[in-house]
Amino acid sequence: MNERDLRYLLAISEAGNLRLASQRLNITQPALTKCILRMEEETGTKLFQRKGRLLAPTSVGNVLIRRASSIVQSIDETQREVQDYVSGSRGHVRLGVVATITEFLMPEILRDLTRESPNVTLKLTIGMTDFLLDNLRRDELDVVISPIYESGEFDCEPIMKDQVVIVASRDHPLASGTPTLCDLMDYRWILPQSSVGLRIWLERAFERLSLPAPQVQVETNSLPLMPKLIAKTELLSFTSRQNLAGAIGGEHLVELPFPEITWERDFGIFTRKGGYIPTASQVLVDRIVQVTGDGMGDLQTTRGHL
Question: What pTM, to 2 d.p., does this model score?
Answer without folding.
Answer: 0.59
